[in-house]
Design brief:
2 copies of one chain form a homodimer. The first copy, chain A, is built from 7 helices and 11 strands. Chain A is of the alpha+beta class. The A-B interface holds A 50, 52, 54-56, 58, 60, 62-63, 73-74, 76-78, 82-83, 105-107, 109, 112-113, 115-117, 119-120, 122-124, 126-127, 129-132, 134-136, 140, 171, 209-210 and B 50, 52, 54-56, 58, 60, 62-63, 73-74, 76-78, 82-83, 105-107, 109, 112-113, 115-117, 119-120, 122-124, 126-127, 129-132, 134-136, 140, 171, 209-210.
Chain lengths: 211, 211
DNA sequence: CGAGCGCTTGACCGGCGTCAACACCCGTGG
DNA sequence: CCACGGGTGTTGACGCCGGTCAAGCGCTCG
């Protein structure tokens, strides 16, 4: 209940339309650009990637969403979504139809404030993504991604993605991503914790930052 | 009056705080990250760049704003700005104190809708910027920038920036930008119209798009 | 055990960065 | 009027980072 955290009882009684709790499997798409609006989603657990296809047919990941983020805000003012949303892990979300937002929002100042905060966070995330992950050498990009994907409750842990996805995030080729990660491991800056190459421990965050 | 286009007389009478019309010279900064919020700006004429400084001290331009855009929306929910805003040309803006927005918004549904549309446009612009201008070869990036900066009322005309600024937008070095532009001119895809290298005519937009 | 997928690693190549020289525009001052 | 200097843009030579192509490894699942 990211958006409704501090609504009154009476606010809730105004809701007649159902709010669905949904689960998505790893790899399944919550929505794509062609689909009509089915509402906005608040992300409870898991990670979601927002994907666009460039003019020349390649995939570009424009942002990663994590628990607490809102997915698909754009349909509040637009009939369709701006990108595809694909689950990177098992994902559980809460889907809220657009008209529920408008009914509640009609005379609810606090919801407007919460929405505005979500918009602001989205813009900031987008700008951060551009400034931190798409600038500089391959090594800098990979380092910054490892830092950005740290676990909120244990900043030594970080979990990343398939090498292909990382390429689409950082504008690098899979092979380059692989090389940089293994280089960081040889230098003992990071340490692999699983067998699949997704979970790492950061042993020297200083060095990652000053790359 | 981008935001207040369809407000009632009575809405306006609620405003006591002054709304300033301001002018900025080319190169002057409207605000920077350290400055306290002085309100949001609607851009009437000219162009503004939003700039961030990366960890390693280089400048990154995250977006260009043009007439009709709103500058500094983030201070509606945050005490300070997320980036520096610098005038790329002579600029005239309309500055609206934050509390005016809140006073008007308290019971004005249409203003909320307008604001939401501005937020959505901002996110879309940010994502477009990432997907179109920071992906692919130098030639593709320069081509896409020329397309994005076309004049709204004459799509054959496009006006760009200093080579250094273009580098900070596209994550390329000045020299590379210069080479690509001159290459496009030799191929007669574009044609320079001024002596400073800012205004061009697009002679073959097909070719620019399919690069 | 073998097929298939994702990841790693090596060899090679090309595009972009680096460094430097130079052209051009403009303002200033002689 | 020209001489000069600084800022911006262009162009060339060269080197290196990251892309390309290909082989091989290690899982997982049939």
């Amino acid at each position: 209940m990211v958006l409704f955290a501090d609504l009154d009882e009476q606010d809730f009684s105004a809701i007649h339309t159902p709010i669905d709790d949904l689960e998505f499997k790893k790899g399944s798409t919550l929505y794509d650009r062609s689909s009509r609006s089915q509402g906005i989603y608040t992300l409870r657990t898991g990670m979601v990637k927002l994907v666009r296809v460039t003019a020349d047919g390649r995939q570009r990941i424009v942002r990663i969403l994590r628990p607490g983020d809102v997915v698909g805000l754009e349909v509040l003012t637009s009939p369709c979504y701006d990108s595809d949303a694909v689950a990177l892990t098992e994902v559980s979300v809460c889907r809220i139809p657009v008209d529920v937002i408008f009914k509640l929002g009609a005379n609810n100042q606090r919801l407007h404030l919460k929405l505005m905060q979500k918009w602001q966070q989205t813009v900031k995330d987008a700008d951060d993504w551009l400034a931190d992950l798409n600038f500089g050498t391959a090594r800098q990009r990979v380092s910054n991604l490892m830092l950005k994907m740290r676990s909120p409750d244990d900043p030594e842990m970080t979990t990343i993605f398939s090498r292909d996805d990382m390429g689409a995030m950082l504008d690098l080729k899979m092979e380059t991503v692989s090389r940089e990660i293994n280089q960081l491991m040889r230098e003992e800056v990071i340490e692999q914790l699983d067998r699949l190459g997704r979970v790492y421990r950061i042993r020297n965050s200083e060095l990652l930052m000053t790359n």
